[in-house]
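Obj: model holo form, ligand = S-adenosylmethionine.
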Amino acid sequence: MVCEEEMLIEKVCELYEQISSLESLKPSKNVDMLFTQLVLTCIPPSPIDVTKLDKTVQEIRSHLIRLCGEAEGHLETHYSTILGSYDNPLDHLNIFPYYSNYLKLGLLEFTILSQHCTHVPTKIAFVGSGPLPLTSIVLASNHLPSTTFHNYDMDPLANSNATRLVSSDPDLSKRMVFHTTDILDVSNGLKEYEVVYLAALVGMDKEGKNRIIDHLAKNMAPGALLMLRSAHGARAFLYPVVEPCDLRGFEVLSVFHPTDEVINSVVIARKYPQPVPMHSLDQQGLASMILPNKCSEIQAFNPLNHGNIIEELAIEEQLL
Ligand SMILES: C[S@+](CC[C@H](N)C(=O)[O-])C[C@H]1O[C@@H](n2cnc3c(N)ncnc32)[C@H](O)[C@@H]1O
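Output (holo structure tokens):
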């Protein structure tokens, strides 16, 4: 097992060396080939714990997540521009190579959301929607046909590309709203949403992610749901990890780790109904590590046959 882990780390570091020496991360044969290899290396289930890596590998991982984010941004801009040249961009979404992953992730997130939401939400916020807001488009078109989606992105170019994709659609042009702003500058506006989605790449390191989560905890409506994306095992070389204990101010309802080609883990949490006094936040951080077992349901099913579920909260269960 140790040997397997060493081989995995060696392979990831080797790919990192090649990726970090590329002149550009814009889509090209070489860029696509290296990222495909990286993804295929990280997808198989692995017991690796990224928090236990030595300092050099930790630094490589942090840098790799940024490089993946940059490449993902370029890829989305590239395809959004091509799609924007069609009269009806939404009819051609399947030209995006990972469209089927978004269909699966959208269905998975909708299924998980439905288990914790008693009614159809009227307004959902998606934070970090990007130039190709596929999650919002898939949810709005396939699963939540009467919900309005408020997409937030701090990059004006991302939003103008994204707006172009839905502008010719009579239904989605009304139900997809775009806001160009850093989510850290939105406070009262966040209270309007029954559900807030947070994209995996908003907050690329622990500190950045926690700043965003704390901001959401402070400003979302009491009782509102937060859907966020994390990563498990070797997939954590590609995306930031959110642990239940990072979700201060929220009750963690469930954590689901797909083992198929859907890379991200899905975490759903509910903002506590009562405001939590600031002085108790540290204790509460500890509480949310221990309490999920008490106050949340541990998903003991496999909603969409997404491979095996590995339940992080099981360890807390043993503690109680
Ligand atoms: C490229 S990804 C898009 C996610 C993907 N399309 C999806 O459906 O999950 C991340 C986006 O988040 C945006 N972003 C990062 N930090 C942000 C913040 N603090 N506030 C608003 N947008 C942010 C970036 O500008 C980028 O466009």
